Amino acid sequence: MYTITMWTSFVLAALYLLLIACKFKSLAVSIAVIETAADFFADSKRIIIVPIIYFIMAICVFSLWFFGIMCLASVGDMTGNPSTQMKTVDRTSLVNDRIAWMVIFYIWIATLIHALNEYTIIVSACTWYFSRKDIPDDDGIPGDSDIWKGFWWSYRYNFGSLALGSGILTLVSLIKSAIDYMGDVLIGATAGNPCTICIMKCVDCYFDCFDRFIRYLTLNAYIYMAISGEGFCTSAIHAFLVILKNAAEFSFVD
User: Fold this and answer.
1) Cβ contact 133:74 at 8 Å
2) Domain that residue 127 falls in
3) Is 191 a member of any domain?
4) Is residue 121 part of a domain?
5) Which range among 80-89, 125-134, 174-183 shows the weakest confidence by mean pLDDT?
6) Is residue 137 domain-resident?
7) Does 8 map to a domain?
8) What is the 3-state secondary structure (H, E, C) of the chain?
9) Rg of the chain (C-alpha set)
10) What was the pLDDT predicted at 153?
11) Would the pTM count as exceeding 0.85?
């Protein structure tokens, strides 16, 4: 087994070195991309205010949502237990359905806030990349980023596309949670049958890969959307084609 493992590792390492040799130009491009990204962050230190702003916004939204759902959860007939000072709320199915919808919409809004944060940083990176580089800078790094343009574009031009992308991510997350719940129910119903556990683990693994793929594609769709100004669906298709055409560069950068 040690010998087989050794020769397998040797073959895989040789294939990897061959891949790097054949894609040496792609590797050089990827290194240049990383160097340019480092220059952007060094030249745009104020970019740190973007996640801070959206973190404060997320806290405010959560506070309002939590107050609202607590008010909704208290709607119903209350029965108390004098010995424990605890009360039980008997809610109707309509109230329970509205609580479920509030949870779903909060996940959507939280995902949208995260998308707004990402898109603002993406636009600032695009404005820095396409800015003039022939004008000398005080810090020695040519180029200027416009962070506030990212805020403006995200709400003025691309808010609907960001909401659509966030809705897709929310739907995928809900389906993944439903599959996890059904898997737990099936495993419990079959008393921990090893075959059932294996099948559910495979399903969970496949859907987790699908979830990561959708999130990766959505992020690249936001990038293409910031550059081209097109809608989410068109940007997602074009971003997918760009990734396929430049698979080596994307892999090396990742």
Assistant:
1) no
2) 48-76+89-132+145-253
3) yes
4) yes
5) 80-89
6) no
7) no
8) CHHHHHHHHHHHHHHHHHHHHHCHHHHHHHHHHHHHHHHHHHHCHHHHHHHHHHHHHHHHHHHHHHHHHHHHHCCCEEEEECCCCEEEEECCHHHHHHHHHHHHHHHHHHHHHHHHHHHHHHHHHHHHHCCCCCCCCCCCCCCCCCHHHHHHHHHHCCHHHHHHHHHHHHHHHHHHHHHHHHHHHHHHHCCCCHHHHHHHHHHHHHHHHHHHHHHHHHHHHHHHHHHHCCCHHHHHHHHHHHHHHCHHHHHHHC
9) 25
10) 92
11) no
Q: What is the mean pLDDT of residues 121-150?
A: 82
| pLDDT for residue 242 is more than 90 | yes
Q: What is the pLDDT of residues 141-163, one digit of tens each?
A: 777 888 899 899 999 999 999 99
Residue 73 burial by Cβ neighbours in a 10 Å radius (0-12, 13-18, 19+): middle
How many structural domains is the chain composed of?
A: 1
pLDDT at 139 over 70: no
Residues 65 and 205: their CA atoms lie apart, in Å, by 32
Q: Percent of the chain at pLDDT above 90?
A: 52
Tracing tokens 């936001």 back to the chain, one arrives at 222
